[in-house]
Amino acid sequence: MAFPTTRLRRLRTSPALRSMVRETRLTPADFIYPLFVVHGRDVHEEIPSMPGVYHLSIDRLAEEAHSIAALKIPAVILFGLPASKDPIGSENFAADGIVQQAIRALKDAQPDLIVMTDVCMCEYTDHGHCGIVRDGRIVNDETLDILQKVVISHAAAGADVVAPSGMMDGMVKAIREALDGEGYQDVSILSYAVKYASSFYGPFRDAAQSPPQFGDRHSYQMDPANAREAMREAQLDVEEGADMLMVKPALAYLDIVRRVRETFDLPLTAYNVSGEYSMVKAAAARGWLDERKVVLEALIGIKRAGADLILTYHAKDAAKWLSEG
Ligand code: PBG
Fold first, then answer.
1. CB count in 10 Å sphere of residue 95
2. Domain 25-324 part of CATH 3.20.20.70
3. DSSP category for residue 301
4. Catalytic residue set
């Protein structure tokens, strides 16, 4: 029955009808909010390439945790900037490292807030790579030993979820074994299972002071041209014991979000990365885009593609907008 009997515009005639037949809904419960934690006192410093995102010191985290919880955002993910860097990234697994301190401060202030940690080496190493470097190469298996120490230190500080992002082979298995071996069976793993070697990470590398000091990340992060390989990455992480999967970045990779969603039943997160954020902020600052409308449209698109959760720097603004209706 085609036109004129069938008219799709009928169900678009009023806001109430459009709302009733809406297929996808966005809520603050979908969001994970990234925090960049730094040493020092009373630091609340805006990151130049990411307006609205801040470096925060530990003493500012209680207030931040309360404001995130008040917006009904369930979770944060922590990125730390260490006091000093070395070849193996020692502060990454120090009991009083910046992220370990942040976990405790957030859990003290807001025990129900889910605290996730990014588990990687690049912010902590002087060479800026996500693994141990030998003869100019990033070596896989020695890196796993370090990642095991990192997750144990995060779990000991009270992290709920660890999120390995370094794209080392076997990282999920190594991390699960380390956690279980120390009695942390209840700490979950959100694997950055499908992480592309993307230029959309540019502003983050300023924010985290983590650009590679030589070469690039193409020997461990995925080629943006590959989709079948993403299924192999996700499959292996499921077999190794991941509790949740992530696809990163989000907007140029919505086909991958959809494919992972259709193939695996684990909760799926998409990472709406720094470059995706900064492009919108830059255009909005010039009056070229309506920030609120564009952000909510991008986020609903990510959810419609199949993500259950969205890791996004827009989380606080979007939660506010959603609560205003
Ligand atoms: C690695 C890590 C990166 C991001 C999150 N975790 C950077 C990279 O792989 O170079 C990027 C996030 C973003 O761009 O928002 N620790």
1. 9
2. yes
3. H
4. 195, 248
Tokens of 16: 């109430």
Can you give the pLDDT at residue 325?
Answer: 75
Distance (angstroms) between ligand 1 centre and the Cα of 36 equals 12
Q: Does 117 sit in the ligand 1 pocket, CB within 6 Å?
A: no
Residue 34 CA, closest ligand 1 atom number: 15
Summarize pLDDT for 129-181 with one digit per residue, the tens: 999 999 999 999 999 999 999 999 999 999 999 999 999 999 999 999 999 99
How many of the other CB atoms lie within 10 Å of CB of 103? Answer: 27
274 lines ligand 1 (CB under 6 A): yes
Distance between CA 122 and CA 18 in Å, rounded? 46
DSSP state of 266: S
* Residue 19 confidence (pLDDT): 97
Q: What is the pTM of this model?
A: 0.97
Residue 111 pLDDT grade (very low, low, confident, very high; cuts 50, 70, 90)? very high
pLDDT tens per residue, range 219-243: 999 999 999 999 999 999 999 999 9
Percent of the chain past pLDDT 90, that is, above it, reads 98
3-class DSSP state of 247: strand
CA-wise closest residue to 72 among 325, 319, 322: 319
For the chain, the domains span 25-324
51: part of which helix (H) or strand (E)? strand 50-57
211: Cβ below 6 Å to ligand 1? no
Distance 204 CA to ligand 1 centre (A): 6
